[in-house]
User: Fold this.
Amino acid sequence: MNLSNINWKQLSKTFAAPLVILLALALMPFYGWEYGVSLFSHFLIYIILTVSWVMFSGATGYISLATAAFYGIGIYSAALLHPATGFSLPLIAVIIVSAAASFLVAFIVGAITLRLKGIYFAMFTFGLVLLLFQVINYVETSILGQRGRFVALESNETIYYYLLGIFVVTMIVTFFIKNTKYGLALRSIGENEDAAAHSGVNVTMVKVLIFAVSAALMSTVGVVMATKTIYVDASTAFNPMMSFSPALMAIFGGMANLYGPAVGAVIFSYVQEILQTGNLNNYYMLIFGSILIATILYMPQGLMGLIQNLWNRLKGAKRALTRG
Assistant:
C-alpha cells in the first residue's frame, strides 16, 4: 500500500468525531454516573439491533422481521451456557457460540426464504420468531416441566463494556460492508435485483451471507441482555416487539447513512425509558405509532434526511446571497 496516496485530511475528518465519541463512551463508567451507564447500555442495545437490521434490510429492501428470533437465540444461549448455578462458560465464549449459532440458523433460513420477495419474506421471517417461541415454550412446559431459566448476573459496568465492544464491531462490519463490493452488490440488489443478477452478482449468496452476519450481531445483544434481566423465558426472549422496534427506529432516523439508524434508536429508546420510569409504558406504542405515521407522511427519508435537506437549502440560500 502506498501511504502517499491516502487522503489523510479526509480520513481524519471521517473518523475524528466517531473516535472522540467512542473515547467519551469508554470513559463514562469512570464518571461515577451509575444511571448514565444503565441508560447508555439501553441505547447501545437498540443501536446495535437497528444498525444490524439496516445492514441487510436497508440496502436490499427485504423487510426482515426475524430480529426477535436471533435476539432470543442469544438470550437462550446465555441461559444454557451461562446459568446462575452449575457449569458456566465465560461470557465472551457464550457470545461467540451464540453468534455462530445465529449465523448458521440465518444462513439456512436465508437460503430457503431469500428467494421470496416482499410481504412473503417478511411473513416468513416473523413466522420464525413465532416458531422458536412455540418450540421452546413447549419443550420447557411440557417436557422439562419448568418455565424459564436463571442467568448469571453481571455488573452494569461489565454489561456496558461488552455492549460497547459489540457496538464498535457492528459499526466496523457495517462500514466495511458498505464500502466494499458487498455493499455495492447489496445496493444493486435493492435498486434492481434482476439487473444485478444479469450483471454477474450472485444475488442469493450475497443476500444470505449479509443476512447471516446481521443475525450474528443481533444475537450477541441477546446474550449480554440476558445477564441483566437474570430470569428469562420464551415470552421475554422472543418478544415480537424486538422485531418491529429496530425497523421502526431505522425508518424514523433514516437509512441513508450509519448515523440515521443510531439517532432513531437513541431517540425512541430514550422515550421508552422515560415512559417506563414514569409508569406510562402503555403510551409508548401510541407515541411510537403516531411519530412513525408522521415520519412516513412528511419525512420519507427520515430525520437525518430532513436535517440534510434543510442544511442543503441553507447552504444554497447562503450561496445565493453571496452571489447577489
User: Anything to note?
Assistant: The longest helix spans residues 34-60.
